[in-house]
Structure to design on (500 residues):
């Protein structure tokens, strides 16, 4: 198998470069002194150019063709060739001048966005954002012509390989028809019972960190192959077998950091569970952004905001912060951790209202990439969508269409993966509980081994062997279905549930 062996060796070397980029990027976001920023940027830029050059090397096409013609390859090797071809096709589609123009436009727009957001000044950002949009549309067109996709689906494909907007439209339309009425029902049910008791701080950072590390160990994080640090924006990064997660602390609110740690630990468990025999190959990578997000949301939302987990965690929270009284009882903590309220800011949204924020952004970015709406109309369209989906209207663009960095930074096609991930998390957790009925009871004892074992077998160890729909169908018995997510919301937040 000379062609396949050469192909695999080539991409193992590319993975080594990617690992170096991952650790340098993590260091840039956590520990690097500010004075090193310019030098670090040059180093990262060079490594990225080298990595891109390896992926796009002209010999890769010949090696792929040779490997595809070889006999005796197993399922993993065939899937690896498929993933390499997918990666190579996308990476070689774009002319270098378009990549460079987009990079420069994004750099200018990101800088301008910070000022425009602070001043709620969309007109000031408009010309620069229009340039980014135009270039992203061109990128979508070029990739789409190579892949046989619409421009939006070609951009979506970067984050969700095989994902199609027609399928997302159906899933999100189903949710959008359900969410406004359900949100109102939940809010009315909350209003009929006493509000949860607040927890009185301050909560020292050292105690928060110790609690987070304890809970990471509980859920199964391998500290021999990862670590926890602090950054401005929490993330999961690093390298193969060296997973770096970060959080940020607020001494007035420990729940935000703790749930952030649980969220990023879900990502990290996926990274630590990828198939070791293929860990340096494209087929050994995580399947898609929606599957990756499902692992973080499964751990944070499905497991760690459950009554079972909070019954286990409550005495440990009390011990960590010297808490006492009814506010620190598990039932009150559960009410705090599942509180629902309408709000303008996506990143602060609860489990019920969050999908509405994502659906709005998805519909708008699809219309903009499809040239179905002038960019100048974005603020008005945003506000109308917020009224329709959440029943509130932003007072200004700072808390409206300027709040996210995704579009100024060129991240078009990314937004839908958040809610696809939430839906996938619900479906996987439901299947895990049906397959292993002792999972909820084990979580109540602080034993995540049964849940993690099921995830390892059905998701983590599969890497990118299967397409996303095939992975989910094999694990749960069906492709992605909005009804499972809706059933989860009804169980946790519906009128009967909120009466407890």
């Amino acid at each position: 198998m000379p062609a396949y062996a050469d192909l695999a060796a080539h991409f193992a070397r590319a993975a080594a470069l990617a690992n170096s980029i991952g650790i340098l990027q993590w260091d840039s976001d956590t520990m690097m002194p500010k004075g090193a920023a310019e030098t670090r940027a040059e180093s990262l830029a060079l490594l990225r150019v080298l990595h891109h050059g390896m992926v796009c090397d002209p010999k890769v096409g010949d090696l792929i063709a040779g490997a595809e013609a070889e006999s005796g390859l197993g399922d993993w090797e065939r899937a690896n060739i498929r993933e390499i071809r997918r990666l190579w096709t996308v990476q070689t589609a774009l002319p270098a001048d378009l990549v460079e123009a987009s990079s420069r436009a994004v750099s200018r727009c990101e800088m301008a966005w910070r000022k425009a957001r602070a001043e709620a000044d969309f007109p000031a950002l408009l010309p620069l954002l229009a340039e980014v949009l135009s270039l992203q549309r061109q990128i979508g067109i070029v990739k789409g012509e190579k892949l046989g996709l619409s421009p939006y689906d070609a951009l979506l494909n970067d984050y969700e390989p095989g994902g199609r907007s027609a399928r997302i439209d159906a899933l999100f339309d189903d949710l959008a028809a359900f969410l406004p009425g359900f949100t109102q029902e939940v809010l009315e049910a909350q209003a009929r019972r006493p509000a949860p008791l607040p927890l009185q701080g301050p909560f020292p950072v050292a105690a928060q960190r110790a609690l987070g590390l304890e809970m990471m160990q509980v859920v199964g994080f391998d500290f021999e192959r990862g670590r926890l640090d602090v950054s401005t924006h929490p993330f999961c990064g690093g390298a193969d077998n060296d997973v770096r997660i970060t959080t940020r602390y607020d001494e007035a609110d420990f729940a935000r950091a703790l749930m952030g740690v649980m969220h990023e630990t879900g990502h990290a468990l996926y990274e630590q569970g990828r198939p070791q025999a293929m860990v340096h190959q494209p087929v050994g990578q995580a399947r898609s952004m929606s599957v990756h997000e499902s692992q973080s949301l499964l751990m944070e939302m499905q497991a760690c905001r459950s009554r079972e987990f909070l019954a286990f965690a409550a005495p440990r929270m009390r011990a960590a912060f010297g808490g006492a009284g009814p506010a620190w009882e598990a039932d009150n903590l559960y009410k705090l951790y599942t509180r629902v309220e309408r709000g303008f800011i996506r990143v602060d949204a609860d489990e019920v209202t969050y999908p509405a924020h994502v659906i709005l952004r998805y519909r708008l970015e699809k219309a903009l990439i499809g040239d179905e709406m002038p960019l100048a109309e974005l603020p008005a369209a945003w506000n109308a969508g917020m009224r329709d989906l959440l029943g509130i209207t932003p007072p200004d663009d700072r808390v409206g269409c300027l709040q996210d960095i995704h579009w100024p930074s060129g991240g078009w096609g990314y937004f839908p993966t958040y809610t696809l991930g939430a839906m996938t998390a619900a479906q996987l957790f439901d299947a895990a509980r049906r397959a292993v009925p002792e999972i909820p009871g084990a979580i109540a004892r602080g034993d995540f081994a049964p849940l993690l074992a099921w995830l390892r077998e059905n998701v983590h160890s599969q890497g990118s062997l299967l397409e996303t729909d095939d992975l989910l169908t094999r694990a749960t018995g069906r492709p992605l279905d909005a009804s499972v997510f809706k059933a989860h919301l009804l169980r946790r937040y519906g009128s009967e549930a909120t009466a407890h």
